[in-house]
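Final report, Chapter 2: Outcomes

The project's central promise was a pipeline that accepts a single protein chain and returns its three-dimensional structure in a standardized token representation, suitable for archiving and comparison. That pipeline is now operational. To close this chapter, we reproduce one record exactly as it appears in the project archive, with the input sequence first and the structure output second.
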Amino acid sequence: MLGVQVWEETAAKHVSLSGQLGQVAALASRWRQLELASWRGLLQRTVQRFAQSADKVGVGRADAFIRVCLWVVFPAVLAYS
């Protein structure tokens, strides 16, 4: 995107990419929103899978394992639990 911005600053008006740049920026923004929105569901499904396997491993160890995994990947998640 930086290269396109430099192009816009230096190129003639008749070869402007501003219309396309706006569309690409909007697409990138929407993609990021979808990506961020999907993390919550992904984390919930992962925790559910670990919780379902708690009977096999033992509830205390499974809970500890889930918390360690979340702490390693997403430390901020444990601040809210």
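Archive annotation: The helical segments are 2-10, 18-52, 54-57, 59-73, 75-79.
This record, like all others produced under the grant, will remain available to the consortium after the project formally closes.
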